[in-house]
Specification:
With about 220 residues, the chain is an alpha/beta fold. The protein folds into two domains: about 40-105, 2-Layer Sandwich (Histidine-containing Protein, Chain: A), CATH 3.30.1340; about 110-210, no CATH class. Helices cover about 40% and strands about 20% of the residues. It contains eight helices and eight strands, in the order H-H-H-E-E-H-E-E-H-H-H-E-E-H-E-E. The chain has helices at about 5-15, 20-25, 40-55, 80-90, 110-125, 140-145, 150-155, 185-200, and strands spanning about 65-70, 70-80, 100-105, 105, 170-175, 175-185, 205-210, 210. Strands 1, 2, 3 and 4 form a four-stranded mixed β-sheet that branches. Strands 5, 6, 7 and 8 form a four-stranded mixed β-sheet that branches. Strand 5 (about 170-175) and strand 6 (about 175-185) form a beta hairpin. Helix 5 (about 110-125) packs across helix 8. It starts with a helix and ends in a 10-residue tail after the last strand. This is Osmotically-inducible protein OsmY. Keywords: Signal. InterPro entries: BON_dom (IPR007055).
C-alpha cells in the first residue's frame, strides 16, 4: 500500500464497519417515536463510530454494527468475548441525545474448535501476499500475537489473545461456520480471501460478506 492508502483505507473501513442501515431497523417497528434532528443524527453517528472504533478489545474476530430507532441506539454484530458486548454498550450510552441502548450484540460460543478455525483461517488469509496489506502486522499469527506464539498456542486460546492492530478482513466463527466481514480494495482480493477460508480444515461453511471498496451492494443487516 502507498502511504496515502495506509492513511485513508482504515478510515474507509471504519465508516462501513460501524454502519447499519437505519431503515432496516426502523421497518421492524413503524412508529419509532421521537427522532433526532439531521444535525444531531450526524453528530451522534460520528461519535458512536469513534467510540466503537476506539474499543481496545475490538479485534479481528469481532464485528460490530449499529442502527437507530427513534432515539434508541441499536447495537448489533458479534463479540468473541462477553466483555466486548458490555464495553460497547458502556462506550456509547453516555453520548448526549441517546435515550437508550438496545444491545443485540451476539456473544459467540466459547469453543476450542472455533478457536482452532479462527487461527487457521487467519493464517490462510493474512499470509497470502496479496492480502497482507489488510493486516497491520503484515504476517501470521505468531507475529501478530507476539514472539514465540505459534499456531498451536494460538489455536488453544486465540479468542483470549487475539492478533493486535488493524485488520480490514474480520473473521467470525460460530459453531464451525465462518463469515468474513470488512472492506477490500477489489473483487479479486475478496475472492482470494473467500477461497482461503473455504480451504480451512474443520470449517463447516464459509459466507463471504466482504465489501469491495466503492460498492455498497453487499451491505446488509446480520
Amino acid at each position: 500500500m502507498t502511504r496515502l492508502t495506509r492513511r485513508v483505507f482504515p478510515a474507509l473501513a471504519a465508516s462501513l464497519v460501524f454502519t447499519l442501515s437505519a431503515p432496516s431497523i426502523i421497518a421492524q417497528e413503524p412508529t419509532p417515536g421521537p427522532t433526532w434532528s439531521q444535525e444531531d443524527t450526524l453528530r451522534i453517528v460520528q461519535q458512536v463510530q469513534k467510540k466503537l472504533a476506539g474499543l481496545s478489545n475490538l479485534g479481528v474476530f469481532d464485528w460490530l454494527t449499529f442502527g437507530i430507532h427513534g432515539k434508541t441506539l441499536v447495537l448489533k454484530g458479534y463479540a468473541s468475548r462477553p466483555v466486548l458486548k458490555s464495553d460497547a454498550e458502556n462506550a456509547v450510552k453516555g453520548i448526549q441525545g441517546i435515550d437508550s441502548v438496545d444491545n443485540q450484540i451476539e456473544v459467540l460460543p466459547n469453543s476450542p474448535m472455533d478457536d482452532r478455525i479462527r487461527a487457521a483461517v487467519y493464517n490462510r488469509i493474512y499470509t497470502q501476499p496479496s492480502l497482507r496489506k489488510y493486516n497491520a502486522n503484515q504476517g501470521n499469527i505468531g507475529r501478530a500475537i507476539g514472539p514465540g506464539a505459534g499456531i498451536a498456542l494460538a489455536a488453544g486460546g486465540i479468542t483470549n489473545t487475539p492478533p493486535m492492530g488493524f485488520h480490514a478482513i474480520h473473521i467470525i466463527v460460530k459453531n464451525g461456520n465462518v463469515t468474513l466481514y470488512g472492506v477490500v480494495l477489489n473483487q479479486m482480493d475478496s475472492s482470494i480471501a473467500g477461497m482461503q477460508a473455504n480451504s480451512t480444515p474443520g470449517a463447516f461453511s464459509v459466507d463471504n460478506d466482504l465489501i469491495v471498496q466503492g460498492s455498497a451492494s453487499k451491505l446488509k443487516e446480520k
